[in-house]
Amino acid sequence: MDRFKKVYSQGVIDVIEILVDTETGVNYVFRKVANAGGLTVLLDKDGKPVVTQ
Predict the structure, then answer these.
(1) Which residue of 6, 14, 28, 35 has the fewest C-beta atoms within 10 A of its own C-beta?
(2) Measured distance CA(3)–CA(13) in Å, rounded
(3) C-alpha 8: how far from its chain's center?
(4) Neighbours of 22 (CB within 10 A)
(5) Is the pLDDT of residue 7 over 80?
(6) How many CB atoms lie within 10 A of CB 32?
(7) 8-state DSSP, 47
(8) C-alpha span between 27 and 35 (Å, rounded)
(9) What is the pLDDT of residues 11-35, one digit of tens each?
(10) What is the largest CA-CA distance in the chain?
(11) Residues ≥6 apart with Cβ < 8 Å to 40
(12) What pLDDT is attached to residue 52?
């Protein structure tokens, strides 16, 4: 089983994806534009990590 599961994706060149850690449930946002990219924890309105049960 893969540790991370892609639950949302949009774009081809300018890509945004949401990944869920299957062990902790924590959601991450991945952004890629051309040859650059970044990954960060997805936060709710209170600044706490979004956790999927």
Answers:
(1) 35
(2) 25
(3) 8
(4) 13
(5) yes
(6) 15
(7) S
(8) 23
(9) 999 999 999 999 999 999 999 998 9
(10) 33
(11) 28, 29
(12) 96
CA neighbor of 26 nearest in space, from 16, 40, 15, 37: 40
Q: Is 37 exposed, middle or buried (0-12, 13-18, 19+ CB in 10 A)?
A: exposed
Place of tokens 């960060």: 40
Q: What is the dihedral of CA 36, 42, 45, 48, to 10 degrees?
A: -130
**DSSP structure class, residue 22:** T
What ranges make up the beta strands (E) of the chain?
Answer: 4-10, 14-21, 27-33, 36-41
Global pTM value: 0.89
d(CA 1, CA 5): 10
